[in-house]
Amino acid sequence: MKILVFGASGMVGQGAVRESLLAPDVSEVIVVVRQTLALSHPKLRQIVVDDVLDLNLHRTQLKDVSGCFFCIGVSSSGMSADAYKKFTHGLTLAVANKLLAINERMVFVYVSGAGADSSERNGRMWARVRGQTENAILRLPFANSFILRPALIQPLHGARSKTRSYRVLYRILAPVLPLLRWIAPGSVLSTQLLGEAMLGLLRRGASVRVLESSEIRALVEQSPPTCPAERESASPCAP
């Protein structure tokens, strides 16, 4: 498989890239970034652009991509409704339509969030916008598309949020997150598990197209990684 990742410098994107590089059935991981990642791997290819929509020069690379993991997202805190919608809905759909014109055979996986409202009537602005974005993606004629709605995410293996308030929150919660995962495994996921779930959707699909935290966890637990012994290392699994 050939994987494309948007948002590779963010916490969830870092997990998606790591698990994709570790997977023996992934031949190449392409990341679209504004700044070069401080990461080197034989399977990693970096497309560095000022505008993530500027993909015309890379059409050949993207024509045989198996799946796209779209992990770009921002907190709505401090943002106007128009600004949040432009970034969350506008950018996501612009990228998705650009990719669709290049390769409609890929699977598009969008990382949304718990509480997103697919009815688009929720009183919370961010929930409505997320729901509108999810619905628009599901209507696009990709080979398939899936929505992930994680709630609380535990960063593992050096993954780090770009949002300062989230970094502070994770530092505060770090001592209790393992306990929370044990008490409420359906509510607390890790960056590793999210990456494994995205790959699982490409390999096997799922019975539903919108997956809440408990369904994301179940997807991975029902079909564990190909080489579980190597999941804690930084080395790729043996072929």
TrEMBL record:
<protein>
    <submittedName>
        <fullName>Epimerase</fullName>
    </submittedName>
</protein>
<dbReference type="InterPro" id="IPR036291">
    <property type="entry name" value="NAD(P)-bd_dom_sf"/>
</dbReference>
